[in-house]
Amino acid sequence: MTLKAKQEIEESEVVIGYKTYIKLIQTTIPKDADVITTGMRQEVERAEVAVTKALEGKRVVAISGGDPGVYGIAGLIIKVAELRKADVDIEIIPGVTAAVATAAILGAPIMGDFAIISLSDILTPWNIIEKRLTLATKADFVIIIYNPKSQKRRTQLIKAHKILSNYRSPKTPVGIVRKAKREQEKSIITTLEKMLNYEIDMATTIIVGNSTTHVLNDRMVTPRGYNIEVENWDLQHN
Predict the structure, then answer these.
(1) Among residues 178, 196, 193, 187, which one has the least CA distance to residue 220?
(2) What is this structure's pTM?
């Protein structure tokens, strides 16, 4: 998280979030803060409680993983406040989304245009996800996959892999990172044809390279187009 996010948590009176996220920031939460946790798929309830507590005059922090505006709770809280005609100040504190964290671990795979697509069809119908993935693959975007697989959702990743394989070389570099920038982080750089051979779950982010992505010194790199002429370098300035 950013320093600003840490400061806001430290100054909070109420902290609301998914129980897993709350555990990750436990040492940052003030001892006298009111901590409210919920399980998965209870985002609406968290947003409603956040607005209610803010209307009571409390300094409320609602926690998301990564960035609150990227598959997070920011938009939902704004909507709930609008529906309730709640006169409360809302500030969105940016964070480090999994795409950026994963890219940094793997090297520099998103130096050019890229698309982020979640394979979770809980809130978005699969036919829409499939269409977006197909078009992004055809357009040669580097593709970052969120929520690739869960205990209940196992077929979506297989279908996504088939779409990717229809338009990309089997040798396309693929980076797989589990628990990016958290304890027990694991990462591997492989190829599209071998992608499904590795452990992948909800804590995993996948980056599929485009036609120009390659591996340099065990790092994924998607060139941006700079013209580098090594033979003209002044070696005294290296």
Answers:
(1) 187
(2) 0.92
Cα atoms found within 13 Å of the Cα of residue 112, Cβ hemisphere only: 18
DSSP-assigned beta bridge partners for residue 144: 116, 207
The CATH code of domain 98-221 reads 3.30.950.10
Mean of all residue pLDDT scores within the chain: 94
Q: How far is Cα 47 from Cα 77, in angstroms, rounded to an integer?
A: 5
Domain ranges of the chain: 3-83, 98-221
CATH class of 3-83: alpha beta
Pairing, β 214-216 against β 142-146 = unpaired
pLDDT, tens digit, 9 for 90 and up, residues 4-13: 999 999 999 9
Residue 92: partners with Cβ closer than 8 Å, 6 or more residues away: 68, 69, 74
Query: What distance in Å separates the CA atoms of residue 119 and residue 124, rounded to the nearest whole number?
Result: 9
CA-to-CA dists, residue 96 to 30, 65, 100, 103, 203, angstroms: 22, 9, 6, 11, 15
Q: What is the pLDDT of residues 117-137, one digit of tens each?
A: 999 999 999 999 999 999 999
Rounded to 5°, the CA angle 132-185-21 comes to 75
Give 187's strand partners: 177
What is the CB neighbour count within 10 angstroms for residue 92? 15
* Cα angle 96, 101, 104; round to 5: 135
